[in-house]
Amino acid sequence: MKKYILIISTLLLLTGFNSCSERDLDLLQPEADFISDINSVERMQMMLNGAYFSVASADALGSKLMVFGDILGDKIYNSPSRAIFLQTYNYNYNGIQNQFAFYGKMYDTIVSCNMVINNTSVAESDDTIRIKSQARILRALAYYYLVSYYSPTPTSGVNQEYGVPLVLGNYDLTIKPARATVKEIYTQIISDLNVGLAHISQSEPIDKVFLGANAAKLLLSRVYLTRRDPGDAQLALQYSSEIISSIPDGAFKVGSISASYYANYFKAMDDAQSEDHPETIWELDMNFYSNQVTGVFNDTGLPTFYSPGDNTRRGLLANKPFYDSFGSNNDVRRGSLNIGLFSTSGVNDLADDPKGYWIMKYPRTTTIGTTAGLYFRDIKVFRYSEAYLNRIEALRLTGQTGLALTELNSFAASRKGTSYTGANLLNDILNERAKEFYGEGQRFLDLKRYNLPVVRNSNCSVCNLEATDHRFVLPVSQSAINSNPNLKQYPGYTN
Amino acid sequence: MNVKLRVLSIGVLFFAGHSLVAQKAKADTTTKTKDIAEVVLIGGIKLDPAQKVGAYNVVSKANFESTPFSSVDDVLNGRVAGLNFSSASGDPGSSNMITIRGVSSLLGTPNPLYVIDGVVVGKGADNASVMESWNPLSSIDPNAIENVSVLKDASATALYGSRGANGVILITTKKGKYNQKTRFEFSTETGVQDRAFDKLKLLTADEYIKVGGILMWNSNPAGTYASLEEAKNAYLQQYEPQYVKGTPGTDWMKLVNRTSSTVNTYNFSASGGGANTSFRIGGTYYENEPLVKAGGFNRISVNSAVDHKASDKLKFGLNLNYSNIKRDTYSGGRSVGNPVTSAIMLSPLRSVYNPDGTYNQNLGQGATAGMNPVSLLNESREWSTINTIIGSVNMDYQFVKNFYFNSLYGMQAQMMKEMQNIYKGHPMYGGQNDNRGVLRDARSTILDWNWSNTLSYRNIFNGRHDLQTYVGMEYQDHTYNNLSLFSLTQTDPRPYFTFAENVLGDNSDQQWRQISYFGRLNYTLDKKYTLSGQFRRDGNSTLGDKKFGNFWSVGGSWNVLNESFVPKVFSSLILRGSYGVLGNIPYADQWYSQYNQFATLLFNTQYGWGESGSGYGYVATPGNQALTWEESSHLDVGADFGFFNERLKFTVDYYNKYTDKAIFYEYPALETGGPSRFNANAGSIRNRGFEIVVDAVPVRKENFSWTINANVAYNKSVVEKLNQPLVTFDNGSTDADNNELVALAPGHILGEYFTILWAGVAQANDPTKGIKAGDALYYTDGTQTEVTNNRLLASKAWLGKSAFPIYNVGLTNEFKYKGLSLSFLLTGQFDFYVQNGVRSYTQHDGAFPTRNQVVEALDNWTDAPGAENYSNDNPKAIIGNPSTSRLASSRFISKGDHIRLKEARLAYSFGSLFKEQTGINNLTLYVRGTNLLTFAFDKKLNYDPESNSNSWSWLGKGRYWYSSPVIRTISFGVQIGF
User: Fold this and answer.
1) Which long-range contacts (CB under 8 A, 24 or more apart) does A196-199 make?
2) Could you tell me which residues are beta bridge partners of residue B113?
3) Which chain A residues are Cβ-neighbours of B597 within 8 angstroms?
4) Which of A36, A39, A215, B746 is deepest in the core (most CB within 10 A)?
5) Does A494 map to a domain?
6) Nearest by CB to A80, which of B671, B724, B882?
7) Contact (Cβ atoms closer than 8 angstroms) between residue A211 and residue A137
8) Residues near A8 by Cβ (< 8 Å), separated by ≥ 6?
9) pLDDT band at residue B65, thresholds of 50, 70 and 90?
C-alpha cells in the first residue's frame, strides 16, 4: 500500500511540472506583422516602395511591358530565328496561351497603393500627404496600363463595357470583381491624377525614381489624348504646355541637340551619363539589390532582348523600312551606323530577310567597380520630349493645325530629322513619335488610340492587323478567369 | 482543458525500459502458424494483439540487408500490395515518391509517414534548402532494420492519426537478445549501376547536319536550293560557321556522364545480451559514385539499441542512430545551369575547348554563354554535409497488476551544411555578372521531438474475455532554423566570403506543434470475435481558428476458423473490417507553410527603392482563419484465409477512402493584389480499390523449396469536389510545380491528363482549312471530329488517365536448394500515361536551329529531295517553329504500361561449414541485380516509365526528367557471421 501511495504521489508531483497547454498551439510567424499594422510614416513609405517594385517587375515595366508596346506594332520585329517573343509578335495569343503576365502585377501595385491611400492610422503630416499623392499617381499609372492593353480604346465605340475591374479597397482576399466600364476607369485615372497633382509638391523629386508633378501632368496629357472627350484636348494642351515651360536645362529641348549627347543618354557605359539625367521625368530603379526584387536579370532584362552583346537571346530589331524612314544619319536619333543608336554587328547569324538593325537603347553595361552592371541601367518611362509631342497632338485636336505643323517641324529640326508637309498631319505626328520613342513601348498604344491598323512592310508572317481585330485588346489569362468567375474574357477569344 | 491534460499525463518523465519488439511470425516456410505478425505501435500498444483487424503488411529484414539502395523506401518497391513507388532521381540521397492506396491529398507529399523505433521522422519530404532533392530517409541504414510494417487502413493507422492518412511505415531496427553470447556480423557489397531504361539517343554530327539541311529546305521558298546538299551547306554557313567539315562531332553526353557508376557498402554489427540487458551496435559505410561525373555520396552511420529489464515490471530501452552524409553534386537544378540537361541540347558541332585551351562558350542555342557543361561540372559545385541523429528512450512500467504505464520520448535532429560555389564566367543567377562567382552557405537545423505517455489496462477475464484498453497523450514539436549567406560577387574561386564584394544574408525560423489525446479499446471474445475502437482528439498549430478536431475508428474481426461450421479445407480464415475518420494535414512535413491563420505584411529593409531607399513592404500571407483538419474516412473490408496447412494463403482487401475538406491551394482573384495562393479546405478525393496477396509454397521438401508471393492492387483516385472548376499547373517555367499536361477538376481522376489532342501530321493540303502537307494537326476538341493546324483553335480535352497506375502487380519467386537460393521479383504497372518532361529540350521542330535533338527529329515530315519522309508523327520543321507544334499537347504522352524484372538474387550460404575451423557460423555469398530488364508496351516509349520529376508532390509523377534517371544495379556481396 505504502508503495502505491509513494508511486502515485510521485507521479502527481511530477504532473505539476508539466506545463504543456493548448496555448502552445498559437504560433505566429516571428518576422511578420499583422495586415492592419501600417502604423507609421516609415511603413507607409515602405508599402509605397513595394508598389514601385511591383510596377517595375520584369513582367511589367521592368522589361516585358516595354517590349509589348513595340513588337505589337510595326517598327520593331522579332527575328524568326529567336523564339523569345515570336508568338506575341505573330499575334498568336489567347486566354490559355500568351506571354502576358503583368495583369496581376498591376493589381499588386494598385492594392499596395490603396492601403497607403486609405490609411487612417497615421496622423496627417506633410510626409503622409506626399506619400499618399504619389500613391494616387502610381495607382492611376497602373490603371492606365491595364486599361490601355486589356480594354478597347474609348474612341473605338465598341465593347466599352469591357473595362478592367476597379479595386479601390484594402487587401481583401475574398473579392471577385467584375469588369468596370472603360469610361469608369478613365474617370478614376483622371480623378486620381488630379487629386495627386493637387497635393504633391510642385518641385520635382530629387530622386527621379519617384513620381512627381511633371509625371502626373505628362500622364494626364496622354490620358486626355487617348480619351478625347469634349474639353480633353484643351486640358492636354494645358498640361503639356505647363511641362514645357518648366523643362530643366540639359533635357532635349527644342533647340540644337548633339548626336553624341542624345545617343549617350541611352547607350553610355557610364551610369552617370544616363541615369538621373535632366531629360528624364520618371525612371525605374535598376541595381543589384532592387533587381533581386523585380526579377530583372540576364534572361529577362531589356538588354537581353535588344543588345548586340547577348548573342543567344537578343532577337528584337528595327526593320529596314523604319530605319530608312529617318532619311539620313543626320537624325540624332539614328546617328551613324554602329556609332549612333543602331547597329548591325552580328546581324548575319539571323535568317531575317531583309536584315534588320539592332537598337542600342538598352546596353549591357560593363562593370565599373561593382555598382554598374549588365542589367542595372535605370529604365526611362517618362521623359520631357514627350511633352512637346503631346502638345503638338493637342494643338491638332483643338484645330490649330498650322501651329501644330510648325511646332512639329521645329521638333524634327531639333533632332536634325526630316520635316513634314502636313498632308496627313496625324500620320506625321505619329511617325515623329515613333522615331522619338522606338523601343520605349509606345508605338502600339499610339496606333490603338487612334483606331489605326497595324501595317507591317517587312519581316512578318502576320503583316496586318485590322483596327477592328479583337487582338488589339489582350486576352485575360484563363487562370485569372478560373480564380475570378466574374471576370469575362474579351469577345473574340474562343479560349 | 488543463485538468484533462494533467490527468492524462500521470507518471510523466520516468525514463524506463520498454522494448518495441516487432517480431515477425515465421510465416515464410517451415512452421505452420496461426499467429499473426505482432506489431507494436507507440506507447506499448500492440496493433491487433489477438487477431488481425487492420490492413497491413510486414516486410522482413532479409529484404533490407546488404542492399544496393541508399535508402529504406527503395526496398519496399513491389513487395507491398497497394504500394506504388517511383524515385525522383538516380542521384543517391534524393527523395522518392511512395503512394499507398492512391493519393489522398491534393497538397504536399503523397508519401506515407515513417516511424523509426517510435520516432516519427516524417514523410521523406525534401528538407534541403540548396540541393535539389534530399531524402531524410537515406540517413537510415537499411542493414540495421529488423522489419518494416506497412499500415494501410484506419484501424491500423489511427494511432498516428493526424499524419497517418497516407499510410504509415513502421521501421524497427535490430535489437540484441537477452542471454545470448555476443554475435558479430560483417558484410560488404560492391555494385555497378547504369540507367535502367533509356532509349533517348541524340543526333550525331552527320545526322545533325542532315536535320539542319532539311530545316533550311523546309523553311525557304521552293527553288532556293537546288539540292539537299546545298541546303546543308547553307545551314552550316548560316548557323555553324565554325564547324570544319569532317571533324568528328562532340559527344556531350559522354563528357558529362560516366557510363556506369559504382556503389560500395560495408557493414559491421555486434549484438548480444545478458540476463537483464541486451544490446546491439552496428556501423555502416556506404559510398556511391553516381552516373554524373562530379557527383558523390558517402554515408557513415552508427546505430545502437540497448534494452534493460530492471525487474519483471519495469523495462527501459534506448535507441540511438547517428549518420553522417557527405554529398557532392553539380549545381543547376532545373535551370540552364544543369550540365546534364544542357548536354542533351548542345550542338555536336561545337567543341568543348577553344584552340587556346579555354572553355568554348559559343555554344549556340543549346546553352547560354557560360554554360558549357564540362566547365559547369568542374566549376559549378554543390556539396553538403548532413548529420542526423534519431533517438528514442522509452519506459514500460507495470505499476499495479494489469495496469501499465508507458512513456516514450523520441527525437530527430538534422544538422545540414549546404554549400554552393560557382566560379566566375557562369552567370547562373540573375544579377550575377560574368566576372564574378557565386557562393552560398546555408546551415539548417531541424529538430523534431515527440513525447507520448500511455496508460493501459490489460486483462483476460474468465479465460474468455481479452480486454485491452489504453488512454494516452502525445505532444510534438517541430522546429526549423535556417541561416544562409549568399554572394553573387565572389572574386576568387575559393568558397569563402572574404572574397565577396557584397553578401546577402537571410535567416528564418519555422515551428509547429501538435497535441493529441487518444483512447483505444480492444476486446476479444473466445479468441474468435474481436472488436476494436479508438477515439482521438488532435490539435495542430498550423490551422486557422479551429485547431482541434475529434476523430475515431472502429474495427472488428472474426476468426472463423475456430467456428464449428468451417470446412476443413481452410487452415485459416479471418474476416475483418474497419472504418474510421482521421484527421490529416498534408503540408505538415514541408517547411514554410506553418503559419496560415492570419493575414500578414512583411517589411523588408534589405532592399530599397531609390537612393534613400528605406525598404519595402508587401502582403506576405493572405491568412485563412477557416482552415481546419482534412478528414479522411477510410473503410476497409478484408479477409485472410489459407489452405493446405497455410501453404496457400490469400489476403484480400477492399477499401474506400474518402478525403473530405481536402486542403489545397485556393487562388484568390488576381485583382486582390496579394499572394497568389493560400491553403484552404478546398475539395474532396475518393480512393477506391482492392488488393489481393497470394502466398504459396508449391514445393517444400527437405532440401528444396519454392515460395511464391504475388500481390495485385487496383486503385482509382478521383477528385469529387473542388473549389474551382479547373486547376492547371502551367506557369511557364521549368519549376517542380509546373506540369502543363495535367489538371484537377471535380469528377475527374486526380492528376488526369488534360491537354490539347494531337492529331498527327497532315499528309495532303486542305485549302478549305488552310492546312498544308506537313503541318502539325490537332483535334479541335475531345470529340475528335475536326482537326486544325492552329494550336490556338484546339481546346484541351481530358484523356481519362493519369500518371498513377491503376494496376500494380508484384510477383516474387524464391527457390532454395540446400544452401543455394535464387529469387526474383517482377513488377508490373498498368493503365497509366507518362510524359516526357524534357520534350522541349529534346525535340523542337526547328524552333532553335542551333540546338541538338533526339533521333526522332530525323522523322520530321519533309519533302526534301533524297530525304523524303512523310511522317505521321512529327511535323515539318520550320525555323522558329511558328506553328508552336513543339509546345505541350498529347503528342508527348505515352502509355506507361510496363513489366520490369525488378530484382534478382542468387545466394549461396555456407552455413556452419566453417564453424569449427574459424568460428564463422554463417558465410553467404550473393549476386544481386535490380531493375535488370524492362519491357514497355508502347514501342515508341524511349524513357523510363517509372520516372518522376519531383517527389514532394503528386504533380511530378510520371514525368520524365532527364537528369534524374532510374538506375539499374548489379552487385556482388559477402555476409559473414561469427
Assistant:
1) A196/A133, A196/A134, A196/A135, A196/A136, A196/A137, A196/A140, A197/A133, A197/A137, A198/A133, A199/A129, A199/A130, A199/A132, A199/A133
2) B168
3) 28
4) A215
5) no
6) B882
7) yes
8) none
9) low
Q: Which residues of chain B lie closer than 8 angstroms to A94, CB-CB?
A: 792
Mean pLDDT of B738-748: 91
How many domains does chain A divide into? 1
From chain A, the residues in CB contact with B672 under 8 A are 107, 111, 167, 171-173, 175
Partner residue facing A484 (CB), from B12, B669, B673? B669
Nearest chain A residue to B365, by CA: A312
Q: What is the CATH number of the domain that holds A423?
A: 1.25.40.390
| pLDDT greater than 60 at residue A86 | yes
- Whole-complex ipTM: 0.90
Q: Residue A493 falls within a domain, yes or no?
A: no
Partners of A111 on chain B (C-beta within 8 Å) are: 619, 672-674
Does residue A324 belong to any structural domain of this protein?
yes
Q: Average of pLDDT values for B297-313? A: 89
Cβ under 8 Å to A: B residues 105-144: none
Element (H, E) at A387: helix A385-397
Beta bridge partners of B635: B579, B656
Quote the pLDDT of residue B40: 66
Structure letter (DSSP) for residue B887: S
Q: Exposed e or buried b for every residue in B760-777, given b needs 16+ CB within 10 A?
A: bbbeeeeeebebeebbbb
Residue A385, C-alpha cell as written in the block: 520630349
Q: How many CB atoms lie within 10 A of CB A394?
A: 24
Give B405-441 pLDDT, tens digit per residue: 999 999 989 899 999 999 988 877 766 777 889 999 9
Q: Is pLDDT at B160 greater than 80 in this prediction?
A: no
- B588: burial class by Cβ within 10 Å (0-12, 13-18, 19+)? buried
- Dist. CA B178–CA B183, nearest whole Å: 12
B515 touches chain A (CB under 8 A): yes
CA–CA distance, B98 with B593 (Å, rounded to integer):
22
Q: Is residue A249 part of a domain?
A: yes
Residue among B400, B600, B673 whose CB faces A29 most closely: B600
Inter-chain CB proximity A45 and B728 less than 8 Å = no
Question: Is residue B802 within a helix (H) or strand (E), and if so which, with residue range?
Answer: none
What average pLDDT does the segment A346-364 reach?
83
> For residue B301, which phi and psi values (nearest 5 degrees)?
-140, 150
DSSP B315-336: EEEEEEEEEEEEEEEES-TTST
- A198: domain range? 5-483
Cβ(A436)–Cβ(A333) below 8 Å: yes
Highest-confidence range of A10-19, B107-116, B218-227, by mean pLDDT?
Answer: B218-227
- CA distance linking residue A414 with residue A255, whole number of Å: 5
| H-helix or E-strand spanning residue B605 | none
Task: Tell me the mean pLDDT in the region B588-597.
Answer: 84
CA distance B637 to B651: 11
> In this predicted structure, what is the pLDDT of residue B333?
64
Q: Is the pLDDT of residue B632 over 80?
A: yes
Within 8 A by CB and 6+ apart from A83, the residues are A315, B847, B848, B880, B881
Is A355 touching B (CB cutoff 8 A)? no
B9-59 pLDDT tens trace: 222 222 212 222 222 222 222 222 234 456 666 556 676 655 677 788 877
A34 inside 8 A of chain B by CB: yes
Q: What beta strand segments (E) does B541-647 contain?
A: 548-559, 570-584, 600-604, 616-621, 630-643
Q: Is the peptide bond before A354 cis (omega within 30 degrees of 0)?
A: yes
